[in-house]
Amino acid sequence: MTDASAPARRAAARPDTLRLLLNNTLATAGLAIFALIVLIALAAPLLSLPDPDATAPVDRLLRPLADGHLLGTDALGRDILSRLIWGTRVSLLVGISATLIAAFFGSLIGLVAGYAGGRVDTLLMRGIDMVMAFPYILLALAIVAALGPGLLNALYAIAVVNIPFFARNIRGIALGLSRREFVDAARLSGKSNAQILFLEVLPNVLPVIIITMSTTIGWMILETAGLSFLGLGAQPPQADLGSMLGEGRKILFTAPHVSIIPGLMIFALVMSINLLGDGVRDVLDPRLKSGALTRPVARTAVAKGNMPDDVAPRRDAILDVRDLKTEFRFGGEVFKAVGGVDLHVGRGECLGIVGESGSGKSVSAMSIMGLVPTPPGRIAGGIALLDGENLFTATDERIRQLRGSAVSHVFQDPLSTLHPLFTVGAQLIEAIQAHRPLTKAQARAKAADLLKLVRIPNPAERLKSYPHELSGGMRQRICIAMALANDTKVIIADEPTTALDVTVQAQVLALLDALRREKNTGVLFITHDFGVVSAICDRVAVMYAGKFVETGTTEDVLKAPAHPYTAKLIDCVPVLGQPERRLDAIEGRPPVVNNLPDGCAFAPRCPRAKDDCSEAPIPLTELGENRTVRCLHPLSAEAANG
Amino acid sequence: MSAYIAKRLLAAIPVLFGLTVIVFLIMAMIPGDPATAILGSYATPENVARLNRQLGLDKTLVEQYVIWLGNMLQGDFGRSYTLNRPVIDEVMERFSATLVLAGTSLLLCSVFGLIAGVVSAVRQFSFTDKIITFVVLIGISVPSFWLGLLLILVFAVNLRWFPASGMFAIYGGGDLPDLLYHLALPAVTLAVVATGVIARLTRTAMLEVLRQDFIRTARAKGVTENAVIYRHAFKAALVTVIPVIGIQAGFVLGGAVYIETVFQWPGIGSMLVKAISTRDLLLVQGGVLVVAAAYVLFNLAADVVQTLLDPRLR
Ligand code: SF4
């Protein structure tokens, strides 16, 4: 899905941080509740509350809403509302202080370890690992045990046990930063290590420190309250929320409100912080930004309507696609990755689609069997006929049956496309059993035959291998074997040799070519490389900005490219011995497909561009039999016309 | 595989030593005269003198540590002055109760956390997903000791479904149904936070895995969507979730301190709290060491399970 990643990144470009945070309703609610609690706690001295420690035995254990005591009184007749607000002050103060202490020492350790690297790093991190080997709360207990119960000691204990979280997170980032150029530059300019650390590295790790703080502060408030609850933190007459809860527990059965109220406050406080923290993390951590983690459904969504249904299939075609349109939606923007493509593949025929990445060639191919991820992808129009059967209106179950049997796929990087946790045998057997009622033993025998078919020696042994134990070429042979598991009619191969090195590439191509002739299988072959096209494709379609710009037999197109873009692509064919000389040889980049110009999309990069090129949409014109081009001033116009 | 387990076991040894060093150092932080601190202010002078000798306080810190560790390796954790019995006996007895509670909770949080996470991921953005996400958020924000009190009020006091405290009925109890009956409330309370954490992580892990190329391959093979999710995606997600379950073992073991206090479960957590307030430091030290060692072993087990699942780690 490399084709969609560029627009995705653009669409996610960061607007104002605070606005993003406020866009998240839950985070806003968290912020509001937290702010409210903090404000009330801060304003405690101004609120003319009764003295939180004034006992009044006559008024003991009043229920909430009693006269003069909104939340009632506790076992000593003290006003719970007043104690609650003052207790919240203490809990907040302790929680925030613990967070700051942990953040300070943890970040310092992390910065030094990450920046210094080497032995200092090892030593510090070993220590941190040791501390982390303890169950969190237990270590805090041991520290409190040694120092003696008390609020300050509880604060230290909670701060200490949280240091490792900061140290670990910050070290990782600092380690990465210390290898960056700007640090080297600072070093060369004669800055001291301390200067570099605090002036260059620190500002860059600040977001991570803030994220870690926002995710741990709730915990720290909770844990200090917990220690107080156990009687190990705040000691009477001092009270925080935890110790109020702990005292109330003794009279839980007779006066539950005394313990429920402070508990509710801790809960509200921690919950609001967690809501806010999630929001902060979403905003500051680009990996988790909204939309980054959407789950693609089993099949690409197909827009209702605007589908032609009275199309007469081409007689010679096994796969016949008309006017295919596929788009991606990010936020409000629509990216027209495929803007109306016609293609057909006959039995035993190989059609190549060539183009740069981002041209829409993979999306076109993946649309056919509904393998474009939705969200954000959607098939917006067109029709795809497999042996006359409409694929876009077929049921999900029908599509599942066709996938891997009538139409199979071979993808680019065989390491990431095979499941890392299953043996290749298990994966092959699964592919076979998905479509045939075979026993495990029969399927295994069939799988071994398939491996033999793709010329893998020692098949029975190989079946027991995991993908990571095989070479790249071997893995791709496995993928081809999988594609051939069920008498497929069409293989859709998406850059199947791109991840392989040149000699292996040639072997795999030869294998694929031989097998499709042997089995009379149609192949839709996606590549960016005309060298590969010439090795296997009968016909070729060149794609640019979501549309075909030239089609024809491989021979004709290679001999006399008509479209300037085709000519450039052919020029880019890697010469043996210089594999790097690839597409970067075309200057400029393909356009982003959310806002295409009316005229020729290639005009900005085209050496032959004239004024009329940008005026109106350029139609695909026939150049001869089986030959079309989308260009007003084609290269071989003279030749083709004459 | 067994070679791998042996290797991991060996690697755990330095960690265990590290634990003893940290505990030793924390105990060395005790202000004032350690013998008095350990034995309490009412200790007889003979006892103080004997402990001082036993602790080897005339020696260097390193020598003290070696002696201390040597005693410990022989199972001599000292005597609890409040209980007047060997620390190791008390700790082991208490620890088995904690293990029952924490083990049950760990099981509950793994099962429910995984189920909630998978359902949430599979129905991403649905109403179910939103409900689960919100409940999970409540779960990880709620103070477990407070939740325990609420559950006691509702299920023990009002509904009378479960007992409010203890591990067995005082009269006529002691069998498995009785244990489960007493276990229900504390085990659920203890599991809540960890369930939330595991559910969250499972959801993220599933969403990440479902975007992987090998999931597209599985779909391209024509495997049913159920197999895609529960065989292909879940197994891969489990590899990331297992270590987190190992870490949650630490939170469950630690959280047991609160829950055992709330439900008066006769485990190591409630023992520790009492020992800290009575300054029975040898008991604290023994308890902390045993629980920490158990945690190391839990993590080791999680490592091994992860390796069993993922051939790339072997
Ligand atoms: S139409 Fe014009 S700009 Fe476009 S490729 Fe042809 S000559 Fe170039």
Automatic annotation (TrEMBL), chain A:
SMART domains: AAA. It is found in: Cell inner membrane; Cell membrane. GO terms for biological process: peptide transport; transmembrane transport. It is a peripheral membrane protein; Multi-pass membrane protein. Its main location: membrane. GO terms for cellular component: plasma membrane. Residues 88-277 form the ABC transmembrane type-1 domain. GO terms for molecular function: ATP binding; ATP hydrolysis activity. The chain crosses the membrane at residues 21-44, 92-116, 128-148, 197-222, 251-277. The keyword Thylakoid does not apply. Keywords: ATP-binding, Cell inner membrane, Cell membrane, Membrane, Nucleotide-binding, Translocase, Transmembrane, Transmembrane helix, Transport. Residues 319-570 form the ABC transporter domain. NCBIfam families: oligo_HPY. Belongs to the ABC transporter superfamily. This is Peptide ABC transporter permease. It comes from Rhodobium orientis.
From TrEMBL, chain B:
It is a multi-pass membrane protein. It is found in: Cell membrane. Its main location: membrane. The keyword Protease does not apply. Pfam families: BPD_transp_1, BPD_transp_1_N. One of its GO terms (molecular function) is dipeptide transmembrane transporter activity. One of its GO terms (cellular component) is plasma membrane. InterPro entries: BPD_transp_1_N, MetI-like, MetI-like_sf. Keywords: Cell membrane, Membrane, Transmembrane, Transmembrane helix, Transport. It comes from the Bacteria. SUPFAM superfamilies: MetI-like (SSF161098). The keyword Membrane applies. PANTHER family: DIPEPTIDE TRANSPORT SYSTEM PERMEASE PROTEIN DPPB-RELATED. Belongs to the binding-protein-dependent transport system permease family. This is Glutathione ABC transporter permease GsiC. It comes from Rhodobium orientis.
